[in-house]
Backbone:
């Protein structure tokens, strides 16, 4: 249980690096350059924003919608989590899954932002051939205790590099949810999963409107 909680917190830290961007757009010409810029500027933004430190969901959501989405292929993030059932979903269901899953992730990990204090990031050299269109950028989160590996999967599109998955403590984000989503779909169908996610998000909002 402790390992699961630790993984959730670290996934939150990694997601928060994508959530708290500055006003200008990040450079996505190179995959490691994109991750480095977003990560460093995230730490600076969080440390200077009291609302983010307090887990203000509205503040986080605004930043995500306006600054993060251009650098994340969230359709692929959701597709990875839903797995083989994605092809069975209608376009409308796919849009609803993306919407509810994104809200779930932001609410689940918003609390990690308030924990970002003295953590530092280290960036490992990118090992990829120039012609590759999918790469893994490896970083380390350093604070108290042993360094934690935090990796990002990126793909090269028409407008540069974008993120589509992340790994902490050996678990990729898509894998974290695939089994539970598959069980839910097998039991109640795709619409049932959408309903479950929607109800979880609504319950979380009612319990804590700020995050």
Residues:
């Amino acid at each position: 249980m402790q390992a699961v909680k630790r993984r959730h917190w670290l996934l939150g830290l990694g997601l928060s690096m994508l959530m708290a961007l500055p006003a200008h757009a990040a450079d996505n010409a190179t995959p490691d350059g994109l991750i480095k810029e977003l990560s460093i500027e995230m730490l600076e933004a969080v440390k200077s924003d009291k609302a983010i430190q307090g887990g203000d969901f509205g503040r986080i959501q605004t930043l995500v919608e306006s600054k993060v989405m251009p650098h994340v292929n969230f359709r692929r993030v959701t597709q990875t989590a839903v797995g083989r059932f994605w092809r069975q979903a209608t376009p409308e269901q796919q849009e609803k899954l993306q919407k509810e899953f994104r809200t779930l992730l932001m609410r689940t990990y918003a609390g990690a932002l308030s924990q970002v204090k003295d953590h530092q990031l280290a960036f490992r050299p990118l090992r990829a051939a120039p012609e590759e269109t999918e790469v893994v950028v490896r970083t380390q989160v350093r604070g108290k205790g042993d360094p934690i590996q935090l990796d990002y999967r990126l793909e090269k599109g028409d407008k540069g590099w974008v993120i589509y998955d992340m790994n902490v403590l050996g678990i990729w984000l898509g894998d974290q949810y695939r089994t539970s989503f598959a069980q839910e779909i097998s039991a109640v169908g795709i619409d049932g999963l959408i309903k479950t996610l929607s109800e979880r998000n609504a319950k979380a909002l009612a319990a804590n409107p700020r995050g």
The first helix runs from residue 2 to 19.
